[in-house]
Amino acid sequence: MDPAAVWKPCLEHAAISDLGLRRANNQDSYTIFLASTQQVFTRRGHLFMVADGMGAHAAGELASKIATDVVPLTYHKLREKSPPDALAAAILDANTQIYSRGQASPDFKGMGTTASVLILLPQGALLAHVGDSRAYRLRGGRLEQLTFDHSLVWELKAAGHQFEEQYASYVSKNIITRSLGPNITVAVDLEGPHPIEPGDTFLLCSDGLSGQVSDEEIGAVLTCLPPEEAVQTLVNLANLRGGPDNITIVVAKVLGPLTAGTAASGPTDRAAPLRPVHPLLWTLLGATGLATLGFLAMGQWGVALGTLLVTALCGIAALVQRYGGGEPSWAGDPQRFGRGPYVTADCTPNEDLLAKWSVIVQELRDAAEHEKWNVDWSGFHPLLAQAESARARKDYPAAAREYLHAINYMMQQLKHQRPDKEKTFLD
User: Fold this and answer.
1) In three state form, how does the secondary structure of 380-418 look?
2) Nearest CA among 32, 33, 64 for reference residue 51
3) Highest mean pLDDT among 30-39, 302-311, 320-329
4) Which among 250, 345, 286 has a CA at the least distance from the CA of 50?
5) Burial (CB count within 10 angstroms: exposed 0-12, middle 13-18, buried 19+), residue 217
6) Which of 85, 109, 221, 257 could form a disulfide linkage to 81, CB 3.0–4.6 angstroms apart?
7) Is the pTM of this model over 0.70?
8) Is residue 372 packed enough to be buried (19+ CB in 10 Å), middle (13-18) or exposed (0-12)?
9) Is the pLDDT of residue 320 over 70?
10) How far is CA 41 from CA 6, 89, 202, 212, 295, in A?
11) Where are the domains of the chain?
């Protein structure tokens, strides 16, 4: 059964990756790996990931794809490790593979990628992070940034520098200080676990979104719209601000307690894979077994009994390592990592936000009339009327929702115009 269907009553998710308006290719990548059963969720949770690649030619695209392929595979393979240890090891494995690929070809040398990974577990939301892609949590009208940007700007601020006064004129916000791939090793930030409550909405994104759309807007969009609409709306807003970079967004909304449907139990559970046995144990087992046979052949019964005992102990140790021990425990009061959240924003829809979005709607309408777009206005005018009516009676959430619907409607209409018309407005 499709894992998305299994978890649909309690977990809604959506993802999108958009080229933007200034890039020739999309160097972003994302992955979603939902647990197939309640048992798998208890052990390893649901995994969501965004990676933003960098490098000439197709190097960045390859780096981000390696990251999103390797991390979930390695994380689920390392069953002898706890979730935090397995997640950190998976990130490091991805770094090693990207680095090795970069060293093997001059075209790919120095390629890299950011990586932001969210794991929803019974213990809470666990994150691993490298670079300046971001992870947020929306709860009760507050949007919290759960990850620390590995960028020069953030590092200077963390060191106590007054960035706005001293560095604003010449320090680019796009200079990152850490990524997967360029170096043989990398420091991985772990954050959490952060408690999960019904109604929480998590968002991962590349800086193609966060560089163009404010935290207040991101949170308000997530508040007003379901995930599938929200991701497209956020892409539209980023593109309306110029779309200078690829835009990738993954959203996961917790609707209730994370409990799988009944169809996910029983036969769908896969047996746990056999654990590897340390080679030294196999060597000792073989050596002591042969020694026992040799001493028996020579009639040295006492010595043979001793080596037989050692053989038996080695055999028991191998069996325990192969089959025993179960999953490493991370229950009770798990270790807490990181210092997040790092930024908190009030994202309750308000008059200032509505004024900003109403200007966008007006500009889209004016552009359509000026450029003589072939627009079906019968779909636009009711949305605008509903938005302005709700705004007049100070129903800000309803007004925000209708303004966003109007923006999305006009952006959809724009897609049907001739390419030269689209370029005239968006450039």
Assistant:
1) HHHHHHHHHHHHHCCCHHHHHHHHHHHHHHHHHHHCCCC
2) 64
3) 30-39
4) 250
5) buried
6) 85
7) yes
8) exposed
9) no
10) 12, 19, 17, 35, 52
11) 3-266, 276-323, 351-426
Q: What is the pLDDT of residues 333-388, one digit of tens each?
A: 788 999 999 999 999 999 999 999 999 999 999 999 999 999 999 999 999 999 99
CB-neighbour burial class of residue 329 (10 A; exposed 0-12, middle 13-18, buried 19+): exposed
Are the C-beta atoms of residues 142 and 347 closer than 8 Å to each other?
yes
Q: What is the pLDDT of residue 270?
A: 42
- The position carrying tokens 């759960």 is 146
Residue type, 194: H
For residue 191, give both structure tokens. Answer: 């954050």
Which three-class secondary structure state does DSSP give residue 113?
strand
pLDDT band at 272, cuts 50/70/90? very low
Residue with tokens 């490790």: 81
Q: Which CATH class is domain 3-266?
A: alpha beta
- What gap in Å lies between CA 185 and CA 64, rounded to an integer? 17
Q: How many residues does the chain have?
A: 427
Name residue 31's beta-bridge partners: 49
